[in-house]
Amino acid sequence: MIDDLRRVLGSRRWLTFAIVVAVLVPSAIRLGFWQVDRLEERRATNAIWGVRLDAAPVPLEAILDAGNTLPSEQRRYLRVAVEGTFLAGEQVLIRNRSLDGQSGSWVVTPITLDTGSVLAVVRGWVPLGVTDPFDPVLDPPSGRVALDGVLVPGERPVAFGPSDPVEGRLTRLALLDLDRLGVQVGAPLGQEFVQQTSDEKGVELPPELLELPDVEDEGSHLAYAIQWFSFAIIGSIGFLALVRREAARLRRVDASALEVVEGPHAEE
Predict the structure, then answer these.
(1) 3-state secondary structure 132-154
(2) CA-CA distance, 45 to 48, in Å (whole number)?
(3) pLDDT tens by residue, 57-96
(4) DSSP code for 62
(5) Residue 120: which region, alpha, beta or left (left: phi > 0; alpha: psi -120 to 50)?
(6) Which residues, in sequence order, are CB contacts of 57 under 8 Å at separation 6+?
(7) Nearest to 134 by CA among 84, 171, 98, 167
């Protein structure tokens, strides 16, 4: 095999091919291990998020007091206890949201905390037919309320993704963009919203509570790692197979040439 490789690589075309393979195969292996590292990071992060979701709620004010020193990622999925007053007149729907395979909307109601801060609360989900955020069935409790929830980062518009007009007062939005919603509420809403996890008034009424964030999803890192390692294996084996085939072709050419040279002598 070594002799075959040396002979085949004597061709400039095959030498160039070999250099390309020698660059691409190690690169694919490195990318595969990079995806494995990303998978381990994702699993570690999921474990942290799982611990937070299993913990008892802490007063939201304590989280907000530490907001200047506690990075946003360290607040993600913390269980919180919220007390304040809903701003029913600022309620909106976030469209194109699904629950159990059904299309619908999120019901989002800002809440004023005892400290004066305002946050958005995703009170739950309603089916597609509900298009008016001020439908009486969706009215939030009046007066001071107490509820439990999970802190979730707000959404941001991305290129070629759904977005909302920058100006104007909207009752139905495509994104829970807290900066955009804060403009029409007239108060900053921070970086996270509260996904409500406890039923209001102790009974199950619309809107229906959302499922907890999925902290077991590992993404596509494992699939991508297998893909890159497969590319490396296929590239290596394929290149060696082509070298063997080319070497066999060269041997046939040599044998044919030898027969042509020895042919007249063989007849004598």
Answers:
(1) CCCCHHHCCCCCEEEEEEEEEEC
(2) 5
(3) 999 888 877 655 667 778 899 999 999 999 999 999 999 9
(4) H
(5) beta
(6) 79, 80, 81, 148, 149
(7) 171
The whole-angstrom separation of Cα 199 and Cα 177 is: 24
182 in Cβ contact with 188 (< 8 Å) = yes
Residue listed under structure tokens 């403009």 = 183
CB atoms closer than 10 angstroms to residue 176: 21
DSSP character string of 72-114: HHHHTT-EEEEEEEE-GGG-EEEEEEEETTEEEEEEEEEEEET
* Residue 119: DSSP 8-state: E
Determine the length of the chain. Answer: 268
Question: Is the pLDDT score of 20 beyond 70?
Answer: yes
> Residue 72 in contact with residue 153, Cβ under 8 Å?
yes
How confident is the model over 192-232, as pLDDT tens digits?
999 999 865 544 556 899 999 888 889 999 999 999 999 99
Is the pLDDT confidence value at 268 over 60?
Answer: no
Please, what sign has the CA dihedral across residues 9, 21, 236, 234? negative
Phi and psi at 5, nearest 5°, equal -65, -45
Structure tokens at 231: 């590319």
Could you tell me if 140 and 86 are in contact, meaning their C-beta atoms sit under 8 angstroms apart? yes
Which residue in this structure is represented by tokens 């002598």?
265
Each as own residue / partner, the long-range contacts of residues 248-252 (CB below 8 Å, 24 or more positions apart, any chain) are 250/7, 250/8
Mean per-residue pLDDT over the chain, rounded: 86
Dig out the tokens for 64 from the structure: 């907000």
